[in-house]
Amino acid sequence: MEVSRESRLFSGAREVGPRAILLLDADPRVRQGVSQLVDPSIVKITAVASPDQAMLELSQTRYAVVLIDLDTPTTGAGLALIPSVRERAPAARIYLLSGKKSFDTAVEAFRAGAADVILKSTDQVDYLREKLLSVSVDGSQLVTEMRGLMEELMRRFAEAERRVVELERNNGSEEVPSDDIGLLVIDPDDTLYRELTHAHTPLGFRFEHAGSGGDGIDHATRAKFVIVLCAAALPDLPQSMVIRALRAQVPEVIIISYQFGGVLQIVESSRNIPLCDPFHHTRQILPRLGELVEAQRTKSRERQTMQVIREKHQDFLRRFADLKRRMDGRA
Known about the structure:
The chain contains 12 helices and 11 strands. The protein has helices at 5-10, 28-35, 51-60, 77-88, 103-112, 125-134, 141-172, 191-198, 213-222, 239-249, 286-312, 314-330, and strands spanning 20-24, 44-48, 65-69, 93-98, 116-119, 181-186, 205-210, 227-231, 254-258, 264-267, 272-276. The strands form 2 sheets. The chain has a 6-stranded mixed beta sheet, sandwiched between helices. It has a 5-stranded parallel beta sheet with strand order 2-1-3-4-5, with helices on both faces.
């Protein structure tokens, strides 16, 4: 298919087409192995060993996909290359190749602009091949480039808006003071409550106690709590009912279920996150309180920021989603 004049003008790089893939990996075995994963008549893979070679290729050729090894040229250095690749090839999909699983690495990669993190393991070979072959079904280079640029624009726009909202919040809004962090203990036995009130906590908590599920729900309507510790056994209501009621009243509250001798775990809408098993003593939870509060604050700020962005730019976001959906249908 002939590439349109507009598409050529859009990039100064020489034309290779949507089937071109660039691989950056210092390991010759990986370069050879990945190059043999697909039929070269279907997908053209250019494998290089250094970032300089990769940058030179990107300045000369338009690639649909760029594979970056996490540890090329040095351990973890691949992450820092993603923004540079994104700048030179805004329409390309970037995949980070990693020799080990790491949640932190995945988060950093996605934030930098990677589309996915693929593990270097035998059970991921078929998945990688699928990703490589997926570029061969792209029917329009112009649509591919425009979609990539739109997504890049959206990422930059969202990041800029986050910074603006953060500045506005820092200048004019209020955050929960560090000496007024509400923590509610719902338990017919007040042992945990008493031990917490006498313990040295990392932040200035305001502790309250409720002896039943109904009493705990009433407390939550009268005061703001960041954390609720809810015993597994309550005298009046099932714990699950109490948790649902608390979640409905305060969606952002951190709810922790516990049973002495059993498990201490965060209860979320879709999953439970174990903190301690078995749970025997108050000191097992004390070090985590500060971490939980800071995590909740970060999550709350992000949610508020995205809400502000949606409210300020509702029409733009709707038109962006509609245009992207139509372009996805054409590509």
